[in-house]
Specification:
Order of helices and strands: HEEEEEEEEEE
Oligomer: single chain
Number of strands: 10
CATH class: Mainly Beta
Helix content: 10-25%
Strand order of the largest sheet: 1-3-4-5-6-8-9-10
CATH topology: Lipocalin
CATH superfamily: Calycin beta-barrel core domain
Number of domains: 1
Structural class: mainly beta
CATH architecture: Beta Barrel
Largest sheet: 8 strands, antiparallel, barrel
Shape: globular
Distance between the termini: 83 Å
């Protein structure tokens, strides 16, 4: 009987020692990942663009925002759009599409963060006509009728 109790005690001690051992844990590095895996056919916007000016006019009242260092719109080849605006540390993740019929770009916002406060939800941009695009310059323009009156916006970028 003593041998049986001694054997059970040794077995419990052995199990306890080996079950508490730590395994090697590899740290996970979180990176920005593409939210879409669909390659786009029109790649003229692909790249990291610096916002230089955003002019918005709604029903005759306007506002002009001049971009600062760090204000970027990054269009990926997988139709993802990542926006970072330095004031208020705005971060936006969206998917975009370009209409070949009328040369317009629009996007669906999936997630955004303002000063670290995150919101997940879907919202839609107004369609923007691509009025200028080359290797170093991009201008998109939107002119829409809204419930508040005519809404005009023009955004200019450099690469």
């Amino acid at each position: 009987m003593k041998t049986l109790l001694l054997s059970v005690a040794i077995a419990l001690i052995t199990i306890t020692i080996f079950s508490c051992g730590k395994t090697t844990v590899t740290p996970v590095v979180h990176r920005k990942v593409d939210t879409s895996t669909t390659l786009i056919s029109n790649t003229e916007l692909v790249g990291k663009w610096s916002l230089t000016k955003d002019t918005v006019n709604v029903a005759g009242t306007g506002d002009v925002y001049h971009g600062v260092a760090g204000d970027t719109y990054t269009f990926t080849k997988y139709s993802n759009l990542y926006v970072h605006l330095t004031p208020n540390n705005i971060i936006d993740t969206a998917t975009y599409s370009i209409s070949s019929i009328n040369n317009q770009v629009s996007w669906i916002n999936l997630y955004y963060s303002i000063n670290g406060i995150s919101v997940t939800g879907t919202s839609y941009s107004y369609p923007f006509t691509i009025t200028l695009v080359d290797d170093h310059h991009l201008t998109i323009t939107s002119n829409q009728s809204t419930a508040s009156g005519q809404r005009y916006e023009q955004m200019t970028f450099t690469k």
